[in-house]
Amino acid sequence: MDREMIIRRSPMRLFERSLHGGLGRGHIGVVTSRAGTGRTAFLVGVALDGLLRDRKVVHISTQYSADRIREYYEEVFHDLAESTHLEDRLRVHLQVERNRMIHTFLDHNFNVERLTSALDYMSKHVHFEPSTIIIEGYPEWDKATEDELKALKALAERFQSEMWLEAMVHREGEERDDRGVPPRIARFEEYISVILRLKSAEDHVRLQLIKDHNNTELADVHVELDPRTLLLVWR
Amino acid sequence: MVSRITNPKRVRNIGISAHIDSGKTTLTERILFYTKRIHKIHEVRGKDGVGATMDSMELEKERGITIASAATHCTWDDHHINLIDTPGHVDFTIEVERSLRVLDGAVLVLCAVAGVQSQSITVDRQMNRYRVPRIAFVNKCDRAGANPARVAEQIEEKLGRKAVMMQIPIGLEADHKGVVDLVRMKGYLFEGDAGSDVREIDVPTPLLPEAETRREQLLDVLSMHDDALMEAMLEDRVTEELIIAAARKATIARLITPVFMGSAYKNKGVQVLLDAVIRYLPDPTEVENEAIDMSGPEETTFAVVPSPERQLLALAFKLQVTPFGQLTYVRIYQGVLKKGDMITNSRSRDRVKVGRLVRLHADSMEDIEESQAGDIVALYGIDCASGDTFTDGKLDASMTSIHVPEPVVSLAIKPKDNKAMDSMVKALQRFTREDPTFRTSTDEETGDTLISGMGELHLDVYVERMRREYSADVELGRPKVAYREAIAVPVEFDYTHKKQTGGSGQYGRVIGTMELLDEGQFEFVNKVVGGTIPVEFIGSIEKGFRASMERGELVGYPVVGMRVTLKDGAFHAVDSSDNAFQAAARGAFREFYMKGKPVVLEPIMKVSAEGPTEFQGDMMGTLIKRRGIILGTTEESGFVRIDADVPLSEMFGFATVIRSVTQGKAEFTMEFSRYGVAPSDISEEMRKTWLEKREKGN
Q: In chain A, what residues touch B616 (CB-CB under 8 Å)?
């Protein structure tokens, strides 16, 4: 398959349809799951789809080294290329790397100001303006303030980017509302457009839509995550 | 003074690895001083003009960097320590890797202020490849801003290894006096002339709470890997011996990195570090090594048994020229090596006599009669190449060949006169023998001598050595990058080679595919069934393709990363021959290669630039301007590290540029990463030149 075909046939198209057109620029989406259920895999899947479509992606992490995140992309890209018999792999890989910035903050002192200044550096010095911003490990939902979420939302709007965040849901003992969302996340719903839950079933991970902008009817997402290849697949 | 080694359990072969300027040479110097191998301390850039003892080459003394790994022997607490000084610069990859091959353990020196820097990460990765257990020494605790606990955290974050603090400092910065040993719960102060008097004290009261907390953390980590210690903890009967045994086991299994600290320059903590080397790093019998059995048709590996009873197996890992002949450093893996022995070089099959066997200090040597498995010694006056294996002649085996990367850059050199010509030839012969990544060749068009290596600095050092050691004055050309070609899309081929020109004809038909191979140079897959091509010609076809790959059809550079799958074909009972099928393969390549939309590949370097955060934009801009791809950016405590893949052809002179855009505050390292697709403007230009050249040639 060539790149165009992979984009057209990607499960992400189906995911976007379920979301009535996707997350949308200037909006924040949050993917939630229990520990080890594939939030990074999902986020890398979203990022890779954008990268294949020649869009620019910034991946921010406060937990893992840049090398480790890059290895994750390499794994997923390799599996995708193998399973789709991707043509012209070298050139596509080059394009993916050119369109991606991985930026990590390892000193436990991350905040929106530092994120803003990193994004400003990229835009000013190398004209890199992301269509997608992925942030892992921030905010820390228990401690987060409304100001932080407000600032993130403002940043997404300023860069006209889709911003994806992640949140770990604790295994037990945590209070949740009737949709299964812990209040430490739900309290910021004003700033969050999409909430998604990853739920592990026997041999796959289901994607479940919990919030879709202002739509009251939530679509059933016919996409899942294959835990072996870490790829998004059709259900 | 040196006793014969009789018990390999009392041997430690260790390396000291570090980032430039984290004080590795100073530490080595102190170790030699405390083990009484030298009697005076010289500083690296000493005012006395003598320089530290381990930097044996002139050039190293001048630049304050260590280039060649020299092995030196010392004794501590009834143990023999062979200290292998490893270079601190990535351009000399082969030197580092060769030393790592013969090490059983290493001390990773880290700066208490700068922490885990890019170079340490590279060296750590190399050590992982050779599965070297290590302990960390956080040096420069006397400097302003020293924070050993933060460095320990960085070992976990940046190197992904479980760091365990075995000590805490007594005082930091200007007040740094010594360390508290968390195993014995005693303090150690280093007093007297050059810190030679180690005084044991009770843990200073203000440090007691921290020492207790850290000791608990230490026990927690160790007990996770050791049931005996876990039980002892539950029963409240933890002993020093139990802790040491658990820490030793976990270090050797590379589950933890114990962290020690001090200041080599201020003579703090070095003696207790030596104790730690003996306590926690493995002896030669605790390390698994493999050799290649070369007696059968297929190369198979077997485990080396580090016993003097076994047949001799020794690896020459380092050559040095001295005024009295070639000095060959060998690591003995099996058996005994005696003066007067006849030994066999398993590569050349030459039988040579061991005339002199010596043990080395960095600038003096001691003759010895014999040595045995586990030891590192040197042979005098034996002709061999670096990486050769010596045996007793009966054992047909070789130590696993070390991974030798292909050179990525070359430079034309021209001697200024005839005298320089002679010296240059001599120098080049010597260098290529010492260093397998340094090669020489002749430029087909200009007739110039080309030298090739792993980077600009790598070649620079040899040119300098040519001038200094051989007085060969040479003029330098512009550095040239080693390009390659590769096929981008799979292509089917069906080619018949047929010739009928009197006498017996030639006939061969080959059908199959050529495609890109992700890893490796070349792969040949035979899927012919039913005897459409007789088995004896399959090898001819592979040979034909291999030959064609030496020069691609796109720009005339070698082709890499290709898989050829032979699926079918045809032969003629009389006219088919080895030659005919080789020609068929070459014909198939010639006719179908271009249909695979080949691309030009260029060497891509992995560059790590590190500097204050405020320069991140400029650093990034400089890398991007050089067609760099930013792989990742890591911010930490006011510093930023940018990792990027940058084409080698754009990296010439980068050192000057990065310094000027960051006011000298950034530094960088680079190493060869991979081959990547060159942009179309470059490949089109190369194609034009190649076609013109070919036109002229025809």
A: 118, 121
